[in-house]
């Protein structure tokens, strides 16, 4: 018998999923700050729009085709991202490899289509303030596409090459949460870049 | 408690047995008692031996490699915290020297000590350095050191990110000073309004370096905020439910959330500014549909919360220091916490009061006047709670407490002039005059620097293990207090008689010379105060009295470990049964056992009630955060000269981040291998996980 009263934690697990573990908080922190930036970019867009009678000023609005294609691709990518997350949380290595691979293909497709989007904006960043805000908005979202693509590729390589432990399944699951964020903000940004100039 | 009761109970039983009759042999009883005492002594001895063994094992696991390599690769929150504090303080001294140079120039009319161009650089550098390189970083730095100790854990969450945050801060600060010494220091004011800061009126690279400094410090602030929030929510000692965390820790939580929403705005604004300057965008160029007012909104949506990001942790210091020096728990814990949280919210609704002179709609101005006046309410609640705490206690007038009293006096004065300026007509009258300079120095020095110095005197004994001299401390306080008021009080009057800010000289005969000379004299006293502090600090390292674990008899967990704390913070993770845990806990408050000694294992607890949840393994010393910071620095600095630096520079940054992330084999194998391997092969792991979680709960 020990003289000291104790709380024994030796039986506790060494990793957990969701908000129980630390990476989830880091992911959401990232989402909070990046989300703030997205929102401030949107607000800046409408701030610059307010005093101008014609919008977009002196140029046609961006063409719908590539942006809409990307909307479809990115919305569809939600499915493999979700399946990746589920597989990771069940520690199903084969499932995680498969669905993360599929997610990467979607992200690659989105990046390629994004390049076409830039060619179809009908404006340049140094033309006027409208051009600047549109390019920077789209560029900001593209940065997120590319970073998450790189993240996913690194995780994919890790799933094949190892050394693996439980924590890496947590990372795969968190990667999907971050992708959800990229998806949600693409829907909003599509509305700002492609829909707003046609409505206002 | 139960143990003591049990022992007493046993004693009574024995006594009763002794009284019961002749059947009990007194000699046998004495023998039994002697054996019990010996057994207890043996047990204590055995426990000491076990403790000693555990200390050695933990030191081996949590210690850093020796020498320079250890210094560069450490991820220990205390080492990083200390250098963070020291670096921020060095920038404080540098910013102070710049201020003294300005005071010398302004001591008499038509002085030619500094020319207008250098003066512009110096006042811009002073504001930028004090806000971005001193005030916010030092508050985060103190939290990086203190919060893990105060919540009773072994490390800050994400220790590598912490180290990265420090390097980014250091490199950004060095960059701006190198630029300044090469005569490319920013000269457009600490808020860099376009069009002055735009490409047309500020050619050259000066404003670009300013904009990139912002990026550096924002990256640093954001990563530190992330790790502080996670530490506070997930790494608290068992039993430290949300309503038991120290008020100081609450203040850091609120500060970190404010950082999340404030810093991205200015980072984005400064990115737009630098794009306007470098790649021809037109965000702030009215000729092409841009708007300089957009910059003012972006800047002040960050800039005003920034004031609270600095002020809220300072109130946390005050809430930590007062109870200790009046020997009673803080009055109105819930009210204090709610005030902090509401200050955090209202702080985001005030930014336009910096723009009253920019010609905004009157309705909008009225709204922001009301919001500005509203924030006085939570500040007032806090001040009344502190007064009530002091009222109900027995004050001990040590140096930390003196600084708190100095804070009351100066901050309340600064708050008063703040309320005055909430009113648009008065604001328009004093806008851009020394009245504003006086106001914000009263708020920032009074509201933050005084509590910070109090915090230095309070916590340095914990950090260094040595007490600072009380006599020098009092001298330090009075020099700073008198010097501060002599410097800044006359500025109220100077502003009211019309002296504008940011002028490098003024004509004789305006009636400004006497007050300016007084302000300069005050500046000298203030500087002397800081010099006394620095002397006191270095003196304490050699000749200060040993601090011991808890020199002030304080109630929070950081005082439960040695001074300075070991690399692993606590031999046993404590548990908490009360808000003022060291004052209230019984002698046998349980401790946590079962964390591994051979890997850096940290206990993760539930967010609300801090029940043990799982154990997470933390990283060992690594150079990757340093490499990542170097790569990022190279990219940021090169981007001042060519936009191609961004896509090209991203490659080494990405490589460094992958290196950082990639697991090392021995680590992964060490990590509870049977558990993981078993799980990887199993189909019904989900059930097993749940079962394990149940055991944990």
Keywords:
heterodimer; A: 200 residues; mainly alpha; 74% helix; B: 697 residues; two-stranded antiparallel sheet; 23 helices; 2% strand
Helix-strand topology string of chain B: HHHHHHHHHHHHHHHHHHEEEHHHHH
- With strands numbered from the N-terminus, the spatial order across the biggest sheet of chain B is 2-3
Number of H/I helices of chain A: 6
- Alpha-beta classification of chain A: mainly alpha
Please, could you describe this protein's structure?
The complex is a heterodimer of chains A (200) and B (697). Chain A contains six helices and one strand. With 200 residues, chain A is mostly helical. The longest helix of chain A has 34 residues, at 166-199. Chain A is elongated, with a radius of gyration of 21 Å. Chain B has helices at residues 2-20, 26-62, 67-73, 77-106, 116-151, 159-181, 206-234, 247-278, 292-326, 333-346, 362-374, 376-391, 399-422, 424-430, 434-464, 470-496, 513-543, 581-584, 624-639, 645-661, 665-670, 673-681, 685-696; strands at residues 591-593, 601-605, 612-617. In chain B, strands 2-3 form a two-stranded antiparallel ribbon. Chain B is globular, with a radius of gyration of 28 Å. The chains are: A mainly alpha (200), B mainly alpha (697). Chains A and B meet through strand 1, helix 1, helix 5 and helix 6 of A and helix 2, helix 7, helix 8, helix 9 and strand 1 of B.
Write the layout of secondary structure elements.
The complex is a heterodimer of chains A (200) and B (697).
Chain A: E1 6-8, H1 22-49, H2 64-76, H3 78-89, H4 93-119, H5 129-161, H6 166-199
Helix pairs in contact in A: 1-5, 1-6, 2-4, 2-6, 3-4, 3-6, 4-5, 5-6
Chain B: H1 2-20, H2 26-62, H3 67-73, H4 77-106, H5 116-151, H6 159-181, H7 206-234, H8 247-278, H9 292-326, H10 333-346, H11 362-374, H12 376-391, H13 399-422, H14 424-430, H15 434-464, H16 470-496, H17 513-543, H18 581-584, E1 591-593, E2 601-605, E3 612-617, H19 624-639, H20 645-661, H21 665-670, H22 673-681, H23 685-696
Antiparallel strand pairs in B: 2-3
Helix pairs in contact in B: 4-5, 4-6, 4-17, 5-6, 5-7, 5-9, 6-7, 6-19, 7-8, 8-9, 8-10, 9-12, 9-15, 10-12, 13-15, 13-16, 15-16, 16-17, 19-20
